[in-house]
Amino acid sequence: MTLTQKRFNRNKDIRCAGCAIHKARLVYLAWGTDLIGTRFILGLSSLAWAVMLVWPGALFPSVAQMAAGTGRTTYALMAQMAPELLWAVLFGVQGICTVMALVYDIRTRLVLWVEGILGCLLWTAATISCFASHFRGWDTYQPPAAMAAELMLTVAAWWVLVRYRVEDKT
User: Fold this and answer.
1) pLDDT at 33
2) Range of the domain at 19
3) How far apart are alpha carbons 4 and 124 in whole angstroms?
4) Do 20 and 48 fall into the same domain?
5) Percent of the chain residues past pLDDT 90, beyond the cut
6) Under 8 Å between Cβ of 91 and 43
7) Cβ distance 49 to 84 under 8 Å?
8) For 52-76, b where at least 16 C-beta lie within 10 A, e where not — what string?
9) How confident is the model over 123-149, as a mean pLDDT?
């Protein structure tokens, strides 16, 4: 084996060791840590959605605006699913439940339904609706970049549901 081949093999071994370390760290971050920070951010984000939905003025377009193709088209699909106030109440309930469950360290079946399942449904429906409202065809589709945070919050909501019992002390 030549000196060049030995150096190549040594560098390859070092790279593989580095990959193993990064992989181990990512596995630990995904499976070995608690979700308290993630749940707290999701709860506060849900409360922020609720506040912004009840803010004076209409965020969702009216039926006439949707027919004319005017108004805030980002929320047109959400407006067709439910009124703005209902979305606000649901996001508010989910946010309050999440924050209170964290503050009082409550892990019941009701909290699972409100925080985990309702949270997944709300974040998924709202995010997909906002992305889909801009879709006219694959050749012209430009997803709204401002929705990147909501996309990650949706992934986080699903991750909380998948790993819901991770903080149980039993």
Assistant:
1) 79
2) 1-33
3) 53
4) no
5) 52
6) no
7) no
8) ebeeeeebbbeeebbeeeebeebbb
9) 89
Do both 14 and 41 map to the same domain?
no
75 and 116: one domain? yes
Radius of gyration of the CA atoms of the chain, in A: 22
| Among candidate residues 87, 80, 78, the one with its CA nearest the CA of residue 55 | 87
DSSP letter at 31 equals I
Global pTM value: 0.81
Q: 35-85, pLDDT tens digit by residue?
A: 899 999 999 999 999 999 999 988 899 888 888 878 888 899 999 999 999
Give whole-number Cα distances, 39 to 30, 73, 112, in Å: 14, 30, 12
Alpha carbon distance 99, 41 (integer Å):
9
pLDDT at 14 over 80: no
